[in-house]
Amino acid sequence: MTTKLTWYGHATLGLETDGHKLLIDPFFSGNPATSASADETEADFILVSHGHGDHVGDTVSIAARTGALVISNFEIANWFDTQGVEKTHPQHLGGGFQHPFGYLKLTLALHGSALPDGSYGGNPAGFLLTTNDGKKIYMAQDTGLFGDMSLIGDEGIDLAVLPIGDNFTMGPEDALRAVKLLRPKVVIPIHYNTWDLIAQNPVSWADEVQSETQAKVVILEAGEHFQL
Ligand code: NI
Ligand code: MN
To answer: I want to staple 217 with a disulfide (CB 3.0 to 4.6 A). Which of 127, 188, 199, 206 is the partner?
Structure first.
């Protein structure tokens, strides 16, 4: 069994695992960092980490076209119900569920979660996925550094996806500290260089991470993928 993670720019990810197609925070329309289009991307499942527009993105239209099941926290899942999304699955922080693609747990994230129309979006989340062959993938999405990342690290992380953009999320220095807490085998940086406000040099960050930790950094261009 293989698992393939594609970075579509910003915090938008694709995962193919055990024959299932997942999209995470599918922000294509208006995303200056992506070359992909909301009209062409396939999904069986869509995961939404929090309510901000650059994460809710094109979820409603992609779910309508593909019939994908949308998974998010309780408040956002209910909001998608009111937006005409037919299939939603609410979870919440600390709660896991065995989906066809693997065991998905929502993790803590330090961030906001208001929805684009001002509705309350509950608490923001990260995702900890255990694939059907036992690989652990932590997708932090938007968060600041928090010490309980070490608890997530205790699970034995094969791949961590971390924001490094600063300003809205962890910057490079805190993301390096996050790697030390998470102890992943591989780390992929996201949520940078979408706009000038979150401009970062991923190569110098990778050099620092690889000199100070055991983790291997994989820098993807938008549209490129990493195979676990
Ligand atoms: Ni956000
Ligand atoms: Mn964001």
So the answer is: 206
